[in-house]
Amino acid sequence: MHPQHQFQPQHYNVLDSFWQQQVHEIRHGVHDFKVHQLPLARIKKVMKTDEEVKMISAEAPILFAKGCDIFITELTMRAWLHAEECKRRTLQRSDIANAIKKIDMFDFLIDIVPREEKVNVKTEKV
């Protein structure tokens, strides 16, 4: 495992618990398909940005909404774990960027998420 992928042991437990809970909820939970965390109309609009998509079944945006919800929750958890490692209680942009850098699955976001820019110190000539 790459050194930057290292988490403290309790962090692995948090992530494992999250995924176990998600799988259990999907398999055994009661699903109310009329209540959504994300707006289905927006998801459908994003889906239609692909020119090849002509029609979308009623179930597709619901499945995408659940997938997006899980994705956002996991990324937020990973960013929060980074904030805790830095002994902070406030989630920052850099925490999200670091969470993305720590796992290959999020590589597709590297160009989207702003990185911390190095501050260039210029010396003035008098």
From TrEMBL:
<dbReference type="GO" id="GO:0046982">
    <property type="term" value="F:protein heterodimerization activity"/>
</dbReference>
<keyword id="KW-0010">Activator</keyword>
<comment type="similarity">
    <text>Belongs to the NFYC/HAP5 subunit family.</text>
</comment>
<keyword id="KW-0804">Transcription</keyword>
<keyword id="KW-0539">Nucleus</keyword>
<dbReference type="Pfam" id="PF00125">
    <property type="entry name" value="Histone"/>
</dbReference>
<dbReference type="GO" id="GO:0001228">
    <property type="term" value="F:DNA-binding transcription activator activity, RNA polymerase II-specific"/>
</dbReference>
<keyword id="KW-0238">DNA-binding</keyword>
<dbReference type="InterPro" id="IPR050568">
    <property type="entry name" value="Transcr_DNA_Rep_Reg"/>
</dbReference>
<dbReference type="InterPro" id="IPR009072">
    <property type="entry name" value="Histone-fold"/>
</dbReference>
<dbReference type="InterPro" id="IPR007125">
    <property type="entry name" value="H2A/H2B/H3"/>
</dbReference>
<protein>
    <submittedName>
        <fullName>CCAAT binding transcription factor component</fullName>
    </submittedName>
</protein>
<feature type="domain" description="Core Histone H2A/H2B/H3">
    <location>
        <begin position="31"/>
        <end position="101"/>
    </location>
</feature>
<dbReference type="GO" id="GO:0016602">
    <property type="term" value="C:CCAAT-binding factor complex"/>
</dbReference>
<dbReference type="GO" id="GO:0000978">
    <property type="term" value="F:RNA polymerase II cis-regulatory region sequence-specific DNA binding"/>
</dbReference>
<keyword id="KW-0805">Transcription regulation</keyword>
